[in-house]
Methylthioribulose-1-phosphate dehydratase
Amino acid sequence: MSYAPSTAAGKQTAQQLADISRTLYERGWMPGTSGNISMRLPDDPGRALITASGRDKGELTARDVVEVDALTGQASRPGQDRPSAETSIHAAVYRVTGARAVIHVHSPYATVVAHRAAVPDAASSVRVDRFELLKGLGLKDPTFTDLPVFPNWPQVDRIADDVAAHLAVAREGPPGLLLADHGITAWGDSLGQAKNRLECLESLCQLLVLSQSELSVSRA
């Protein structure tokens, strides 16, 4: 069953999710039904809207979203469609960072870096330094960052637990993470900021790939 927000704020949020989904689809970052986007409701930040599972991101509408508890990821209205399979990861980010929007995509360069920097069955990180684009991430020290890479466990809740545990201690880390062989997730205080940070991170990953130098990977 599709969801129709009842408040003006809810309707605006749902439309924003649909609009940005189509934009990212057109870039080739959300092919087919891949990827997911969420945003806390402006009038009730304890709840969030997230793209429904299995939706073509190039044809997403404001009705193709699900309302969930922002901190648990549990659907907050009966009879809705299933939320994205990765809702628990969004909830982990909201719970620990206080972000207001989260975007997960399969952008090509970040996915390549996530593949190359992955460590079997363990978290790792890839060092990114010197590039001017680091200033777009809101880092305390914009000269470098260690972008975390998490195993892509079949159990998504296990990924969410890994993410939450990492973010709880890495308070000054980047506003984004990689999933091994999978893609990238970024967040921000608004949907616009999350999108900007996502673009910076994808561009940084592109530079890492194009530089053809060996990635500086550390095991967590």
